[in-house]
Amino acid sequence: MAQIEIKNVAKRFGTYQALHDINLTIQDQEFMVLLGASGCGKTTLLRIIAGLETATTGEVWIGGRRVDDLAPKDRGIAMVFQNYAVFPHLTVFENIGFGLRMQKLPNDEVKDRVERTAELMHIEQLLKRYSGELSGGQRQRVAVARALAMEPDVILMDEPLSNLDALLRMEMRAELKGVLAASNTTAIYVTHDQVEAMSMADRISVMHQGEIVQAASPIEVYRNPAAEFVAGFIGNPPMNFLPAAPAGDGKWSVAGQVVDGPSSGKPLKFAIRPEDMRPADTGLTATAKVVEPLGAHLLITCEVQGSMFRAVLDSDMSVKPGDQLTLAPQPDRMRWFDPDTTLAVA
Amino acid sequence: MNARLLPYVLILPVTLFLCLFFLYPFVLVSKQAFSTGAGFTLDNFREVTGYWKFPITMRNTLLLAAAVVPIQLALALLMATMVNRMKKGRDLVLYVWTIPLGISDLAAGIIWLAIFEQSGFLNSMMNGLGIVDKPVNLLTFQNPGIVFLAIMLAEIWRATAIMLVILVAGIGLIPKEYYEAAEVFGASPWKRFLRITLPLLRPSLQTALVLRVILAFEIFAVVAALGGTLFPVLMGETYAYQFDLLNSGAAAALALIILAISIAFTLIILRVLRVPKGATI
Ligand SMILES: Nc1ncnc2c1ncn2[C@@H]1O[C@H](COP(=O)(O)OP(=O)(O)OP(=O)(O)O)[C@@H](O)[C@H]1O
Ligand SMILES: [Mg+2]
User: How much is the ipTM here?
Assistant: First the structure.
């Protein structure tokens, strides 16, 4: 049982506020992904949970115990460091077995567990090597294996697959997810790769400038972004935004088109995903600027009343730059944001 | 300039300098050691090793090194670890601790003589406290233990800092992420010292130990000041051959013996503390 609760955690480095009042509960055995741009405080939060950094204010609870005053080794965690921290003076075998040796496990159990995890990470043929003789991706897998071998209650992973090639990454992603699910481990997984986040997470916490903007299931984060930042960050290409003026009675005027929306008196931002646009007889008038065939789809970058706008259309459409298109937004996929608070409006 | 030649051209002045002032005298000394006027001979070596004092000086020198170097190593490691943990005042502490480095070995010997001699600080203190009723001469042949201890203390005081500065620099090079990883994976502070600091410090330990051991075999002035003839060491004998007995052939032979011992220990240290290929930071 290892539920993690982060209560009002803030972190300040000198005058720089790296984390603002973070509140987050990660359920027992949940796979939580922290997603955010570089420098938003993902590593800092992870290090606070691990006990390598002390929060300026706030509390961290793991498995019903307040752990702020516990040493890292007493928190029941294992960690994969962003910069690997694979010990250079130990072989791969001894690196993976480091934590087990510290627990004074018998030799044959260490050997057994090291070999099992090494196999899982496809590094069983490297066990005798030193870290100086490994590639970045191999070193990274040693770091993951070292954490997995501990069979911890909680595993903290800081971009553990960032250095692998696309194919290996996909494979490792699946294996890691499988192993963690089978072992009842609670996982916090940091990444700035949204595909990774989407495919692995039970829930995603989107971080922005030291705050958690939204913590929800991948599909919820994708479909119903809680804030403009999330809408613009998640999805490739991200959501489109257009200014919307109230036309009374829950009607909104967007780029000269009237659509249904929330009942609010002040101007909002209209948002829609590129793949939620359909060619139609009535709709937004767009001028195609760039057409990129992506195989199954066409990515069209166009202009709608002076704003940049992207649409993903079926690839059997023939569109050339300069063409006029009429695109209709799918009504149930339209989202609205308050330009002042940047939060979603229902 | 040809890029492949450039490095060699750049080290040429130093190489010439060393050849002129080290290699050339070394060749001369060797020639002296292996000759008594006519042709090659080992007579000089037979003479110095056959002398009754030789085993004693050899034993004294090795004993002193064996007693002093491990203590200095432990102290230097402890001090380096402490300095490394400090946030404020680190540089100040380091300067204070390295002050003895700026003092010549003879001066260091005299400082400790001022403590131990009959009219010295130690005697005045013991006298004042009533431990002894009149100042006693501690550094005599009746007290070989005290003589040895005084020399040890002086050496430790004088030459620990040389190891300290090397180890402080070495510890500073160990990335802190390794300590964090070890901490997360359950290593206590002592275990972190044993399993992370020591192995990653091997290159610095090599340098510090080699330097220190060589200096220990060359000990001379401190012993001369504190022990005089009570505690003969190899370097003192070399001096005596050269300047008292005016036998430069024997002095050269003894100097070469000291060099051989130093090289042997250097090789042992390098071997024991070697870092396997691929295992460097
Ligand atoms: N020890 C420190 N002292 C001062 N500032 C720090 C320290 N550690 C982190 N920061 C700052 O805190 C902010 C968050 O850093 P953090 O390492 O948590 O980012 P991150 O989200 O992990 O980024 P990335 O994706 O690049 O790894 C950054 O602006 C960083 O400069
Ligand atoms: Mg980071």
Answer: 0.88
